[in-house]
Amino acid sequence: LAELQSRIRPHFLFNTLNSALALVRLDPARAERVLEDLAELFRVAISDSAESVTLAEEIELAQRYLAIEQIRFGTRLRVTWELDPAAGSARVPPLLLQPLVENAVRHGIEPADDGGTIRVRTRVKLGRALIAISNSLPAQPGSQPGNGIALRNVRERLRLMHDVAGQFETRLEADAYRVQIMVPL
Length: 185
Fold this sequence. Notes:
The protein is an alpha+beta fold. It has helices at 2-26, 28-46, 55-73, 98-109, 149-162; strands at 53-54, 77-82, 91-92, 116-125, 128-136, 167-172, 176-184. Helix content is 48%, strand content 24%. The longest helix has 25 residues, at 2-26. It starts with a helix and ends with a strand.
């Protein structure tokens, strides 16, 4: 589990660090807020990994990451949060959501001239927490397709933690890419 988690860390740390560095030059007051978010991302990434965290903690980390990206992309990045507080107590592997929202930015928002929308939704369904992340797709693909490492990593960490009680599904539609995760409460 620790080996799988370690594959994710450099990827998002370097990307968010570059975003923060760009902002420092443009707007020092906003840079301070971004650096606070970045510090929290670093803290989680380099801390002795807990075996699990709450979904609420993961949501907060994803919000911090997307706040940094919001500065980078401005109005091109639109984020919608539909969060059910009752789902927040579900236990998930650390750094579960961050690579998924990072993929959404990289493959959905970044290559689109007019940007796009990321939607994060949580809810309770039949005694389980449902997490859904979707992103709009650009009219013309502009980024190289990924190799699926982040998706395989998330799927494997869920399997190691929840075995058959956890579910992970991805779906490519005409106008959006969707990830759905279900974990026990």
